[in-house]
């Protein structure tokens, strides 16, 4: 079952923060985050395994709440290069395949 | 290390024809997954191959098939093409099953 992402779209100014959410009605084994720029392939950002650990690199981090089956991607002090569509991909322990959300279109303006 | 490569990058076919797409994973990666991406349906999982065996299959008709060779390269085939098969077909490789997947640039298929 496809995870639900919110918001569908967000527009920011450079330096502002954003949060993208991903939720599932199924028990999750892992959550994967990708960013895709127009006309390009999705690029891996990070993977979170069940256990509620938070990961991050640079100014992008993510958390995974196993109890709520929710993950959030945090983008702080956004840069123009952050623009793109962000997808979460979820994996259930019972069905080891990635199911992607519909994506969140992030636009960072100067 | 070279990334995932897909050939061809663009393809135009007519309804009823068949098509074969190729994917070469990152060297050392043994798992290859295929996805279909369309504006309306988003990224949808087609199938996953590991050690030349299909391990998972998404909810697509039997017209969609694939295989993996001993060198981990993979092909997917779509027979009796329909207009709705027009999409970007992405393959992704990982070292082992369900680890971080790295996507190729995709093959954009247009069915007329």
Order of helices and strands of chain B: EEEEEEEEEEE
Poorly predicted parts of chain B: none
The greatest interface between two protein chains, and residues involved on each side, is: A-B, 23 and 22 residues
**Count of helical segments of chain B?**
0
Low-confidence stretches of chain A: none
Number of strands of chain A: 11
Q: Look at the helices and sheets of chain B and give the structural class.
A: mainly beta
Give a description of the structure.
The complex is a heterodimer of chains A (110) and B (112). Chain A has strands at 4-6, 9-13, 18-23, 28-36, 43-49, 55-57, 60-65, 70-75, 84-92, 99-100, 104-109. Chain A starts with a strand and ends with a strand. In chain A, a hairpin with a 6-residue loop joins strand 9 and strand 10 (99-100). The model of chain A has no long low-confidence stretch (mean pLDDT 90). In chain A, strands 2, 4, 5, 9, 10 and 11 form a six-stranded mixed β-sheet that branches. Chain A is built from no helices and eleven strands. Chain A is mainly beta and 110 residues long. Chain B is globular, with a radius of gyration of 13 Å. Chain B has strands spanning 5-7, 10-13, 19-24, 31-38, 42-50, 53-57, 64-68, 74-78, 87-94, 102-103, 107-111. By secondary structure, chain B is an all-beta fold. Chain B has no helices and eleven strands. In chain B, strand 4 (31-38) and strand 5 (42-50) form a beta hairpin. The chains are: A mainly beta (110), B mainly beta (112). At the A-B interface, strand 4, strand 5, strand 9 and strand 10 of A face strand 5 and strand 10 of B.
């Amino acid at each position: 079952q496809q995870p639900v992402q919110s918001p569908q779209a967000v527009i920011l100014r450079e330096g502002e923060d954003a949060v993208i959410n991903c939720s599932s009605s199924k028990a999750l084994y892992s959550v994967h985050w990708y960013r895709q720029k127009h006309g390009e392939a999705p690029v891996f950002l990070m993977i979170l395994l069940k256990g509620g650990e938070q990961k991050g690199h640079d100014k992008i981090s993510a958390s995974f709440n196993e109890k709520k089956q929710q993950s959030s991607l945090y983008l702080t002090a956004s840069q123009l290069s952050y623009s793109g569509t962000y997808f979460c991909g979820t994996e259930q322990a019972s069905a080891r395949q990635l199911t992607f959300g519909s994506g969140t279109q992030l636009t960072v303006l100067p | 290390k070279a990334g995932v490569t897909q050939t061809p990058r663009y393809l135009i076919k007519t309804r009823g024809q068949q098509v074969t797409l190729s994917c070469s994973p990152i060297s050392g990666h043994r798992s290859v997954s295929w996805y279909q991406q369309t504006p309306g349906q988003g990224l949808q999982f087609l199938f996953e191959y590991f050690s030349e065996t299909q391990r998972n299959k998404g909810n697509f008709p039997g017209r969609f098939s694939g295989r993996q060779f001993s060198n981990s390269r993979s092909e997917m085939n779509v027979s009796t093409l329909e207009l709705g098969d027009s999409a970007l077909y992405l393959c992704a490789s990982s070292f082992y099953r369900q680890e971080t997947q790295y996507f190729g640039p995709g093959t954009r298929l247009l069915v007329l």
